[in-house]
Every structure is written in C-alpha cells, then in structure tokens.
Amino acid sequence: MTTIYFVRHAQSNYDNHVKQTRERSVKGLQNRTLVTEYLSTKEINVVLSSMYKRAVDTVMPFAERQQLPVEITEKINPVLCS
Q: Suppose 31 and one of 10, 14, 77, 78 were both cysteines; which one would form an S-S bond, judging by CB atoms 3.0 to 4.6 Å apart?
C-alpha cells in the first residue's frame, strides 16, 4: 500500500512579493523543523516539491536527513500548493 503525505510549505515571508522566490518567515523556519520531525517517523522513499523556493526549502531538511533528493516537478500545481 502506498501512502502519500502532502505538506503545505511553511509560513512565507510576504515582504517578498515574488511568488517563485518567496522565502519562509521566522515562524516558517521553525515550522519546517516540525515537518522534518513528523516525517522522520514515516517510511518515505521519494520527496517531490513544486518549483517554489519556499516549498523546496520546507522539505529540504527532511530530505537531507533521509539522504533523499528533492525532485522538483511541475506536475504539482503551485496554485493549489502555495
């Protein structure tokens, strides 16, 4: 059985008005730690992300901890995931 975990990017820094390069806020940096801790208890083999910086940066610490690449895909609709 395949299980899919959807993770919304951590809170954004809305001072940056460019959606593609918007980074996370201070709270978002803290939230990604929670995401990493939660996902670390799961059996995950693949990490996918939209191309948005804040999305990649949210899952990157988890991926690095698990020694998994973050696969960027355009099949994830950034309108629904951002």
A: 10
DSSP string, 37-78: HHHTTS----EEE-S-HHHHHHHHHHHHHHT--EEE-TTS-H
Q: Is the pTM of this model over 0.70?
A: yes
The pair of three-digit structure tokens given for residue 70, joined into one six-digit string: 């973050």
18: tokens are 């460019």
Chunked mean pLDDT (size 10), the chain, 82 residues = 83 75 79 91 92 88 95 67 42
